[in-house]
């Protein structure tokens, strides 16, 4: 008899007769990401709203459930992030909201900067995935003494990034209706950053079995390390352009 990792039903065969989860649930590794892309993007109705609800009610616990094998009800992580990034990018351009330009208008006289912004602006999905790898490296490095491998950290941060992206997409509606006055976009960007940090802390505190104060310290260290790595990478692109 096989015990289902999702609902703990005893069954025989390849799939659980109660919840439908596969009998064999392997640990997440590099090949899992490619399988995610092959299967997830073509099953849009498979757990999208359930996953979104879980990410805003019990994010760390939900992600941990997925990693340990309770996966049948969840939308696959990379596919979810790509879908949300595409939706965000479409709305961003359709509503003509220039967050990059408005929030950093002091650089508008710099042609190299504007070209860099246009490049990032036009390749938002790729930019999101690239920064996710940097954030995952920082996360894996800072929490390297935990039992999670790099790919599992990638899943953690992919779902966490999806959570923040849902918030960012909702925030576009606010940016669309408010007047474009000096300082308004900068203030909203600051609020968005604060909420992002709080969401990261909330997720990590639920996910890792450490004292909250240690998790908060390590999470801030991840943000600082990621910031310096991305600043270094962007500065290289800036000088190449």
Structure description:
- The protein is mainly alpha-helical and 241 residues long.
- It has one domain (44-240).
- It contains 10 helices and 2 strands, in the order E-E-H-H-H-H-H-H-H-H-H-H.
- A two-stranded antiparallel sheet has the order 1-2.
Please write out the topology.
Elements: E1 2-3, E2 10-11, H1 30-40, H2 48-55, H3 59-68, H4 77-94, H5 99-103, H6 111-122, H7 124-142, H8 150-177, H9 184-207, H10 212-240
Antiparallel strand pairs: 1-2
Helix pairs in contact: 1-4, 3-8, 3-9, 4-7, 4-8, 7-8, 7-10, 8-9, 9-10
Given helix and strand content, the structural type is mainly alpha
The radius of gyration is 20 Å
Estimated share of beta-strand residues: under 5%
Oligomer: single chain
Query: What order do the strands of the largest sheet run in, or round the barrel if closed?
Result: 1-2
Query: So how many helices?
Result: 10
Order of helices and strands: EEHHHHHHHHHH
CA-to-CA gap between the ends? 61 Å
Low-confidence stretches: none
Largest sheet: 2 strands, antiparallel
Shape: globular
Number of strands: 2
Round the mean pLDDT to the nearest integer and report it: 81
* Number of individual domains: 1
Helix fraction?
55-70%
Write a concise synopsis of the structure shown.
The chain has 241 residues and is an all-alpha fold.
Keywords:
241 residues, mainly alpha, two-stranded antiparallel sheet
